[in-house]
Write a structure and sequence with these properties.
Layout (H helix, E strand, L loop, with lengths): L7 E4 L5 H12 L3 E6 L3 H13 L4 E5 L5 H15 L4 E4 L14 H23 L7 E5 L13 H21 L5 E7 L14 H7 L8 H12 L10 E4 L6
Parallel strand pairs: 1-2, 1-4, 2-3, 4-5, 5-6, 6-7
Amino acid sequence: MTNLNKKVALVTGGSRGIGAAIAKRLASDGASVAITYAKDASAASAVVKAIESNGGKAVAIQADAADVEAVKSAVEKTVATFGRLDVLVNNAGTAIPKPFEETTLEEMERVIDINIRGVFVTTQAALKHMNDGGRVIMIGSAVGERAVAPGLVPYAATKGAVKMFTQALSREVGSRGITVNNVQPGPIDTDLNPASGDWAVPQKAATALDRYGHVEEIAAMVAFVAGPESSYITGANLTVDGGMNA
């Protein structure tokens, strides 16, 4: 597929899990891809090599999503490397599962800094470079729409904020031909939320399909929203959750 031929995408938190799958899918659809990573340079390098081995173009940039200046710099480095920016995927995120009353202020701040502030700052920096046809895509969460299990209060609150950020921003940049959408995964089998983990049983049971999702299933939705066929979709919250919120 070449739906994204000559396009440039930046995927935050693209060294593993959903982010890595998104980066690889966008590259396979023709985009040049930059990914950011916080610490694991070898994992980021592996994603870049996988893309390059399939004939694509990619670069990894170290930038913790909680570090405002690093995030801004990552956007500028992407443009400096590839000459433009067409697609931003705000994928970097974190959760600290535990009862809310036991959650420390430092833990709350970490979740807010990455899931909200990082998204704000990255998006603001990216919009300076986007033209007509640009795409801003959030990776929210099904729990930002409906909290189905305890232990994720700050995370769910931040993802609810991402949902409204998406809707509000779409109103501001629509006249520029830029769409803003929020892909909301349900339980997806990743290192952070393995289908074999302690938290998996209630999450799987909450879905209509009685299974965890795969990272490629989220990447497929992101690729569609990033492509030309989604040009009339904006301000949307697109839930990919196996029917968890049905």
